[in-house]
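User: Need the bound-state model for glutathione:
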Amino acid sequence: MGIDIYAIKPSPPCRAVFLVAKAIGLDYNLKIVDMEKGENRTPEFLKMNPAHTVPVMTDGELSIGDSKAIITYMMNQYAPANLQSLYPRDPAARALVDQRLYFDSQLFASLRGIVFPLVFMKDLKQSQANMPRVDENMALLETFLTRSTYLAGEHLTIADLATLANVSSMEACGIDMSRWPHVQAWLAKLKAELPYYEQANGEGAQMLGAIYQRILKDLGGK
Ligand SMILES: N[C@@H](CCC(=O)N[C@@H](CS)C(=O)NCC(=O)O)C(=O)O
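Assistant: Bound-state model below.
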């Protein structure tokens, strides 16, 4: 019994879930999904998540896909009182965190736009054509981080943890972070501050970066 998380380590949305679970000390059973064998398209998996994406969480009768739905559920259901500031209950403070979470979905879509064509279609041209969307979203992230130390104010929230999974992946893919100095400083700060960083996120980001960089090199990109 307990919570099951269906996931793969290189996936940024899966790592957002690992980070939030660690942040609130929530135990779960990790079920690695072999995507190459089509384990995300079996009738059993599609019953849990018709969108055939990871992560998926099951908790008793509840099966739910999408990392944002999972991490907000974990906070609402399991965060101890002293860690509620990670997803504040005050409506105005929560609205700011939610806005950053929706922004992070847009950031992930732009990351996917460069990774998916390269890794799964070996299409360097399409991947490169999608790069301006990454730059545009990173510039927006830079603007947010010029306004406050963390993404939604002066303390850590789940918006930082979700976005960390994407930004660290971009860094591991070799994207030059020095163009966004506030993002670069925020990234270094979180890596240093979170004792669970490496286990929950660092290792998987390196896995994704290694795959991306190898294929990029094979296709003659830089
Ligand atoms: N919005 C979703 C995106 C999840 C997603 O796209 N996951 C990818 C891995 S990074 C996946 O499972 N792709 C397999 C597929 O689309 O069949 C979330 O945040 O959970």
